[in-house]
Design a protein that fits this description.
about 290 residues; Rossmann fold; N-(1-d-carboxylethyl)-l-norvaline Dehydrogenase, domain 2; 6-stranded parallel β-sheet; 3-stranded mixed β-sheet; 13 helices; disordered C terminus
Length: about 290
């Protein structure tokens, strides 16, 4: 297993490709956008103009794509991996996708002698570039073991949570919690400010107690309190992930009122916060000046 293909060379895929090259893999990448291909080529990584060219050379193919629909097109569309891939190829989908889409594509790939695992990631563009991502992985034990050297070059933490599709279930659950925590943390910091406690001091206390979360420990100090809002993950992507969570909840037949309210608020935010804004901007949803006596 020496050659790894990367399909999707955006902020995440480009960083993964560079981490793989640094891990002594031969890497070939491609993207629908010429500018993305040029950017990676300028950093010394081979690029191809088509999926077929990547499939012809790579033993393992990493997908880093924005939506389940695009993953489906890359795998099952005209000129996609089902048509052009070689028997024995292992596909690693690092996108945040729909579990049922993942399971369907995995079944179709198996029928032509290929296999798929889902390994969605956390850690943003910086984590991709430095090989410090966290992955939740779905797949057979054998496929995950085969993928381990490639996964290790891209990530610092890996948790195998179950069969194919389980990684995407776990990632959707994670992102729904993050989406909810951003809203609740924003509300409690406003509450505390009104009661005379600064956000910095409040978070110090919360992070020493049971109310802490990744949002209070990482998002607020890294991207919110300093006004940076440059995590590399957009409102559009988080809105998509929250919608995926609602679709999955709907398929289970469960009624989860708090999750429904989180989804409503994230959808409502589109009226005031643009798709391309950093996803941490949700903390400003509904913010109003302090009441004046």
């Amino acid at each position: 297993m020496n050659t790894v293909g990367v399909i999707g060379l955006g902020n995440m895929g480009r960083g993964m490709a560079l981490s793989l090259k640094r891990g002594n893999f031969e890497v070939i990448g491609t993207d629908a956008l010429e500018a993305a291909r040029r950017s990676l080529a300028a950093q010394g990584v081979d690029v191809a103009e088509s999926i077929a060219e990547v499939a012809a050379r790579a033993d393992v193919i990493v997908l880093s794509l924005p939506t389940a629909a695009i993953v489906s097109t890359v795998v099952a569309g005209a000129g996609g991996l089902l048509e052009t891939g070689r028997q024995g190829t292992l596909v690693i989908d690092t996108s945040t996708s729909h579990p049922e889409t993942t399971r369907s594509l995995a079944k179709r790939l198996t029928q032509v002698g290929m296999s798929l695992i889902d390994a969605p990631v956390s850690g943003g563009p910086k984590g991709a570039l430095t090989g410090q991502l966290t992955m939740v992985i779905g797949g057979t034990d054998a496929d995950v073991a085969r993928a381990e050297p490639v996964l290790a070059a891209m990530s610092a933490k890996r948790v195998h949570v179950g069969g194919v599709g389980a990684g995407h279930v776990a990632k959707i659950a994670n992102n729904l919690l993050c989406a909810a925590h951003l809203i609740t943390a924003a509300e409690v910091t406003r509450m505390a400010e009104e009661a005379g406690v600064s956000t910095e001091r409040l978070l110090e206390g919360i992070n020493a107690g049971s109310g802490r979360s990744g949002v209070t420990q990482v998002n607020f100090p890294t991207w919110i309190l300093n006004g940076a809002f440059n995590s590399g993950f957009t409102m559009k992507l988080m809105r998509k992930d929250v919608r995926l969570a609602q679709e999955m909840i709907g398929q289970t037949g469960l009624t989860l009122p708090l999750s429904a309210e989180v989804a409503r608020l994230w959808a409502l935010s589109a009226e005031t916060i643009g798709d391309d804004e950093d996803f941490n901007r949700i903390v400003g949803l509904g913010a109003a000046p302090r009441n004046q006596a």
